[in-house]
Structures are given as C-alpha cells and as structure tokens.
Recover the amino acids of this structure.
C-alpha cells in the first residue's frame, strides 16, 4: 500500500514524484518505456519558453504555470546541474505588419512584467551573423533557454530514489479498479499496486488511463505530430539564440533551437494525427521546416542534417491544461493536455498539484 502512484515518467511525472517526496516516501512511478522521458519529453524542442509567448488567452492555467515554471528554471538548472543554454530567444519580423505585432507583444510584456526588448535591423544583425538581411527587426526574450530534458528526468529520478520513490519501468498499466477506499493498479507484469491516490501523468495516453476508471472522461485526446531536423555539433556556432517567426494564432511555428549538446533543432511542424504511438517524418514536413527557416536564416547547411525525428504532443480538445481531481474519484488527479509549454511549466505543474489540488502545503515531512 502506497500513498501515490504516478502513472507516466516523462518530465511531468518525474517532477511530480520529486515534489511529492516532500510529503511522503510512499510513492511509485509506473513508466511503460525502458527509461524515463522517452516519449513526449525526448521528442520535443527542449525549450524553456519566455512566458510572453504563453498569454492568458492561450489558456489561463498554461499562462500562469509557464510564467512560474520559467522563473523556477532560472535557478533549477544550476541546482540540479542539468546541461542547459541560457541563450535567450529572438522573435523575427519579416515585414512591417509583423513588426507591429512585435510592438504589441512588447507592450504586453511590459504590462505583465516580462522582460523583452525591441531590436532594429542593425542591432539584430549584431546578434546573429546568418540572419536574413530582409528582416525588419525582432523582439528579444532573455529569459528563454534550452535544457537537456532527458538529463533532467534522470536527475529527478536519482533524487527521488534517494528519498524512497520506487520506479517501475518497462511496465504498462492495464487495469485500474477502486475498492475499499483504495485504487488497485494492475500492470502487464501481473503486479497489483494499492494506493490512496493516483496522479495520471500519462501524456498522450492520459485519456486511455482515465477510461480504465471513469465512466466519463472530461476531455478528448487530439494528438498532434511535430517533425524536426537536427544539425550536427560541428555547426554549434551557426546560431546562438533560439529563433522564432512571429507566432500564429494556433502555433508558435517552426523554430531554430540551439541545444546544450551543440546540435541545433529545426522544427517542429504541427499536424493532427490519430495514432497515439507512432510518428514519422515526411517529405512534406521537411519542406515546411525549410520554408520557414529560410525566411529567418541564410545559407542553412541542410546537407549536414545528422538525423530527423518526430514526436507526438498530448493535445486535448481544450486550449488549456486539464489539471483537476476526478469528478467521480476525487483522489484520482488528471494532469492532462500537457502539450506546449509542458516542459516550461513542468516544475510549476508539480507544485500546483501538491499545493492547489492536493492541499499538501502544511503537511511536509
């Protein structure tokens, strides 16, 4: 019998387990892959967004937790010794209309207390030598960074293990029942785990897990695929900052994202799909990436691309994260719809669950 079973060992589940160790050591994490962070966490941009790119009209909870998460990462990556780049980001304007949008974002940032700075074309060219000469200017976002999310999960795992958490990897949940005021979680290894609480952090499979218990799941999964190209470490100085086009209504667009290991990720695309587990890279996706990147940069060394990959985002049928107690089983906690900016918000999501959902603030060990 344990106090918490966390289902899902991505960056959300990893932070969740670590945060819960302040209140109990009786915690189990169940992860269906051989290692933590192998699905959505590994196949994303590894980007800690500036909160300016997550306004309240994109989801009030997303906005709140992205802002808090960004603040937490400024010291967290150093405390945990996680490989990272505190390199900032630039949103690039290709025309006067886009420059006007950036001026609006700058004004919004001032109002929300978020650091940003407008750059002229001349100032911009001193920041990055390979930028397109036709750009009209940019908005600088100094709090953006990238972090090695796989290393982050491993660090959180190690710290949680030292505090008594048990991790069951290569283990899949196949059934959940509720009896005698406790949940019984059955796995593919014929093991039953009894617990008083379940944290459903199963990413794209959150709805699947919830359906094992609830008669009505209050969200629907609408998975989206993101495709990427990766430039090798030999071109680590090609770009210094994370580069954004001006964000569109539904997406932040295709980005250029320098990584702590020296590689540079180009992507992602964003296309809906039905499959929850398989995502492939397409020629159409590659061309879409190149089309957007070519508007921002000149002489991109596509011939050196060392690998491509695609990931699936756990998008649901609402704009915001869905982090709530189950209406049928109050000790079953939904942590669902954690798509972008999920990595950014992850440490703040864990605190939100413990403090605002579970009300554990005054129950520390």
């Amino acid at each position: 019998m344990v106090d918490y079973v966390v289902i899902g060992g991505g960056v959300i589940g990893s932070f969740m387990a670590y945060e819960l160790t302040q209140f109990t050591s009786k915690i189990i994490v169940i992860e269906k892959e051989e290692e933590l962070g192998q699905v959505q966490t590994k196949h994303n941009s590894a980007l800690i967004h500036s909160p300016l790119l997550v306004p309240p009209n994109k989801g009030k909870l997303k906005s709140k937790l992205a802002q808090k998460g960004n603040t937490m990462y400024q010291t967290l990556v150093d405390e945990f010794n996680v490989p990272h780049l505190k390199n900032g980001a630039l949103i690039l304007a290709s025309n006067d209309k886009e420059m006007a949008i950036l001026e609006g974002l700058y004004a919004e940032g001032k109002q929300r207390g978020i650091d940003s700075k407008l750059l002229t074309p001349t100032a911009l060219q001193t920041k990055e030598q390979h930028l397109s000469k036709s750009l009209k200017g940019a908005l600088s976002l100094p709090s953006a960074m990238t972090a090695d999310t796989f290393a982050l999960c491993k660090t959180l795992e190690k710290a949680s293990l030292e505090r008594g958490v048990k991790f069951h990897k290569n283990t899949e949940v196949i059934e959940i029942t509720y009896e005698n005021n406790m949940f019984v979680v059955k796995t593919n290894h014929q093991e039953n785990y009894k617990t008083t609480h379940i944290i459903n952090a199963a990413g794209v499979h959150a709805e699947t897990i919830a359906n094992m218990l609830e008669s009505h799941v209050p969200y629907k999964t609408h998975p989206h695929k993101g495709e990427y190209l990766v430039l090798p470490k030999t071109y680590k100085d090609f770009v210094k900052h994370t580069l954004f086009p001006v964000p569109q209504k539904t997406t932040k667009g295709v980005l250029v994202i320098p990584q702590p290991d020296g590689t540079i990720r180009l992507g992602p695309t964003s296309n809906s799909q039905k499959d929850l587990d398989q995502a492939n890279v397409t020629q159409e996706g590659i061309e879409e990436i190149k089309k957007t990147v070519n508007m921002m940069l000149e002489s991109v060394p596509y011939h050196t691309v060392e690998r491509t990959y695609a990931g699936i985002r756990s998008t649901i049928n609402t704009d915001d994260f869905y982090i709530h107690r189950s209406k049928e089983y109050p000790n079953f906690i939904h942590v669902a719809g954690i798509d972008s900016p999920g990595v950014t918000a992850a440490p703040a999501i864990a605190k939100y669950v413990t403090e605002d959902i579970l009300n554990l603030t005054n129950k520390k060990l």
The mean pLDDT is 95. The radius of gyration is 21 Å.
